[in-house]
Write a structure and sequence with these properties.
The chain has 247 residues and is α/β, with parallel strands linked by helices. It has a single domain (2-8, 48-241), classed as Rossmann fold, CATH 3.40.50. The chain contains nine helices and eight strands. It has helices at 9-18, 39-42, 69-73, 87-99, 105-121, 138-144, 148-160, 183-190, 217-228, and strands spanning 2-3, 81-86, 130-133, 164-165, 169-171, 194-196, 205-213, 233-241. A four-stranded parallel beta sheet has the order 2-8-7-3. It is globular. It starts with a strand and ends in a 6-residue tail after the last strand. The protein binds zinc ion (2 copies).
Length: 247
């Protein structure tokens, strides 16, 4: 299904009046009213800046290399990706966004990601045809109640007008927890985890949307499924990623 997101400014204001919006950094009601993040708190979030990995977008510590350590060691399936914040500076908020029901942070997060998408595209002709959120398993969706990547994709869509394909990609198998796996083990674990569906993907460029980028195994598995379904280009935007671990 294609979703075109729209919410008018008065509707959002009314929603904020009824439920005071909380800050994605300090979690207190945002001051001043109507803002999405406290001005002071926003300064604590660290934006990824040059030098960053040309492939996955991860923050590099020095400009000596073009690619991060993971990208030098392991070839990727996706074309390229960009990320908004360094993980450690945004970790607390992302945890509450995913596990504590703070869906409302998605408005601020999604707007930051939309800005990154426009900056990375470098012009209207390079904008993707569709946004595709990375799906979570049915089990996780049941326990969490929502897919945080879809929340982000919807806000990016509101800002950019690019439609969301929310059922183009499905997670078909539950996978093992990957925390202690090497990048190669992660890739193997996810090989058949995703499947792409529908005709909308074919010959179109896709922007995958997710909250966190780690080694790229999830993005590669998603990109693989989308290319198999005929996508012509698969890139991604994430909210946060770790800093390059160095050589
Ligand atoms: Zn705050
Ligand atoms: Zn990289």
């Amino acid at each position: 299904m294609k979703i075109y997101e729209k919410m008018t400014a008065p509707a959002r204001m009314a929603e904020d009046l009824a439920f005071p919006r909380r800050c994605p950094v300090c979690d207190r009601p945002v001051r001043p009213f109507g803002a999405l993040v406290c001005p002071f708190c926003e300064g604590m979030l660290q934006k990824v800046q040059a030098p960053f990995c040309r492939r996955c977008g991860k923050q590099l510590l020095s400009a000596a290399e073009n690619l991060c350590r993971d990208c030098r060691m392991l070839p990727h399936v996706f074309e390229r990706g960009r990320t908004v914040f360094t993980y450690h500076s945004a970790a607390g908020g992302i945890f509450r966004f995913k596990y504590k029901g703070r869906q409302e942070y998605g408005t601020y997060y999604g707007r930051c990601m939309a800005g990154k998408l426009c900056e990375a595209a470098g012009g209207p002709s390079r904008m993707p045809d569709y946004l595709v959120p990375v799906p979570v398993s049915a089990h996780r969706l049941r326990t969490r109640g929502y897919n945080q990547a879809l929340v982000l994709a919807r806000e990016i869509s509101r800002q950019t007008g690019i439609p969301v394909l929310d059922d183009a990609l499905r997670r078909v198998t539950d996978t093992l927890p990957m925390k202690n796996m090497t990048p190669a083990e992660r890739q193997n674990n996810l090989k058949k985890a995703f499947q792409a569906f529908g005709n909308d993907v074919e010959l179109n460029s896709i922007m995958l949307i997710d909250d966190i980028y780690t080694t790229g195994a999830t993005m590669d598995a998603c990109a693989q499924a989308l290319y198999r379904q005929g996508a012509c280009r698969v890139c991604f935007i994430t909210l946060a990623a770790g800093v390059d671990s160095g050589s």
